[in-house]
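agent: user wants the structure for Acetyltransferase from Aeromonas cavernicola. delegating to structure tool.
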Amino acid sequence: MMSDWDRVLAGGALDGQSEEITRDRLHGQSVLAQLNATAASDNGQRQQLCRELFGHCPDSCWISTPFTCEFGRNIYLGEQTFFNFNVTILDLGEVHIGSHVLLAPNVQIYTATHSMDHLARRGWTAYNQPVHIGDDCWIGGGAIICPGVTIGPRSVIGAGAVVTRDIPSDSLAVGNPARVIRTLHPAETRAELIS
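agent: tool returned. relaying tokens verbatim.
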């Protein structure tokens, strides 16, 4: 028998009255409140809370606070990923963020979506479309990553960009909607860092 989460993550509608999902939302919000109230200097407590909040969060990651998410359980982080202040993730669906990823202040990542039919939206029915961000990406300040988007490894998303479709690996994407303006070459990007 499928759990309510199994149905949602398989693309089914969210049942807002589900005891399982309500319990997980309340638990996530409780742990999130503790994380946001913990001093930046208390690294051990912050790491423990992140392990409890996220689906996966290595101790090498740093989550600046305030941070906002809905459940936390559907967020999976790789090694040495950094969230700057005011990152928001609506994790009705899974969010997979690779290793060595930098999220600038005010980045927003959404997996929840609704019907285009106005009558269907009256019941607040929501669906999920997972988001994937590859290793070594840099997401600029205020960028919005929309449901269902995959960003390939080593890509850079410009500040304020609204990413509505997939971005290939090694790309610089900017604007609203975000579009790729050039391909990044490893030797070129390393040279920029050195100079």
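agent: one observation worth passing along. Residues 19-37 form the longest helix (19 residues).
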